[in-house]
């Protein structure tokens, strides 16, 4: 719970924004969807920190680092590996808890539609994360279009389009409106990821709460890395 509360909770807020763009009537279902969105995000971040070997998240030790420290205090065997294993389990649990919240949506048709939307987007994020990890380990240089396409699936659709769409669907938005939301959300999401890349390179960890330079350290192929390689610097 504290892990989620320490975050920006942008995605949860976008659920409310998507709903308010379509309807002025309040609905408890909006809260269920916003909470589920933040739980899904927490799980993805916990797993992402393990894959990227990041020891900080939101200005505090990441989940696997906290568990590893606990294992050290208890003089346990394999504290680092156990810490990662426990954090993976926590991340998995957030996904199941998120779907439990979605299951509380009162309208059965909307509940089924949103469950399908979230499942499709989370699957896309998983495949995009696999591609991101592959690019970081590969000696091949990814094309700029491929990097931006990855950003669309990993960040654009998931971070902006998904929560806005979820809120709009709850409010009864039509297909044309949802198409406009998707176009806007994907563009804004890519801009969001590019800003995140900039903060990873030049940000202040006291403000961002995340380590600086981790993308370069892990070999992530970002537009910054792409242009550096074009200049023969990296």
Task: Outline the secondary-structure elements.
Layout: H1 2-5, H2 10-22, H3 28-52, E1 56-57, E2 60-61, H4 63-73, H5 79-102, H6 108-137, H7 144-170, H8 175-202, H9 205-208, H10 214-217, H11 223-230
Antiparallel strand pairs: 1-2
Helix pairs in contact: 2-3, 2-7, 3-5, 3-7, 4-5, 6-7, 7-8
- Widest sheet, order of strands: 1-2
> In terms of structural class, how would the helical and strand content be classed?
mainly alpha
Distance between the termini: 40 Å
Overall outline: globular
Number of continuous helical runs:
11
Number of E-state strands: 2
Q: Uncertain runs with pLDDT below 50, 5 residues or more?
A: none
**What is the alpha-carbon Rg in Å?**
19 Å
Describe this structure in words.
The chain is an all-alpha fold. It has 11 helices and 2 strands, in the order αααββαααααααα. The chain has helices at 2-5, 10-22, 28-52, 63-73, 79-102, 108-137, 144-170, 175-202, 205-208, 214-217, 223-230; strands at residues 56-57, 60-61. It has a two-stranded antiparallel sheet with strand order 1-2. Helix 3 (28-52) runs antiparallel to helix 7 (144-170) and helix 4 (63-73) crosses helix 5 (79-102). The longest helix is centred in the middle third of the chain and has 30 residues, at 108-137. The protein starts with a helix and ends with a helix.
Task: Please describe the structure with a list of short key phrases separated by commas or semicolons.
76% helix; globular
